[in-house]
């Protein structure tokens, strides 16, 4: 079976302005872009499992919910508090003399009106106040290794992602290592914590039953070859550019580096790889292609190209050795082997 050629296993791309333009169009996932509603929930409704209390007032004593007048000076009790009860699976609660009342999907004001209508003609000009004492349906879940985790009730005014995270106890590790994953319905988006801190549009309103997971994922890239200090380098989740990434390791070694051979290796989705080089047919694996980006430091536009290229997690940067540097290695090796022989010959003579 024929083995794939290097040109098929890797997609080599010389970075230019077109490359940066295509990369810029591949915007990272964002809360604002996916969920994009910057308004709080339109209304706060009761749901199954919520706990509510109902208090009923009457206009005069001696009614269904008011106490009798025991003397000429007293007016009697005119109200009664019904014990707290949880909304049943069928979405209803029980109110004495009113029977079962459907409350799921209704606001507290709508429930109050429904109870008053049921008691009309039975109680003396009743007035009702309904309070949600514990909400399950209007809550978001926060969990993950970067937080203590909690089920956070949402307030009628609306709560944003950072509000809910703070209510759950905040984060326990540096923000630049944390990613926030928001799941709503069938959509899930993960963004860096610093994106929420830096861009108000990312701090969207949380909806009931949203799930927020805080993930610890330190970002790193690797530099090897003719760099000042080849190593694994951590960086903030908001990202850095190639220019900054190379500078962090002391730049390139003038005596060893090949200015035309600065490479960055990563995997890209197939659909994006075909846009980079429509003429190529690279081998894919699970929908991804190995891409090698190449820069020429002799190009006057190199600094601007490097400044516009953003590093991603687990990128690998390789600075090639100049041919002369390889020759110097061979020469040094030859000298280390030949010098003892020369010395021995000199002594023998």
Automatic annotation (TrEMBL):
Location of this chain's protein in the cell: Cell outer membrane
Polysaccharide export protein N-terminal domain residues: 41-132
Keyword Cytoplasm among record annotations: no
InterPro entries, A to Z: Poly_export (IPR049712), Poly_export_N (IPR003715), SLBB_dom (IPR054765), Soluble_ligand-bd (IPR019554)
Keywords in alphabetical order: Cell outer membrane, Ion transport, Lipoprotein, Membrane, Palmitate, Polysaccharide transport, Porin, Signal, Sugar transport, Transmembrane, Transmembrane beta strand, Transport
Source organism, top-level taxon: Bacteria
Domain named Soluble ligand binding: residues: 141-189
SLBB domain sequence ranges: 220-319
Keyword Ion transport attached: yes
Membrane topology qualifier: Multi-pass membrane protein
Similarity remark: Belongs to the BexD/CtrA/VexA family.
PANTHER family, sorted: POLYSACCHARIDE EXPORT PROTEIN GFCE-RELATED (PTHR33619:SF3)
Protein name: Polysaccharide export outer membrane protein
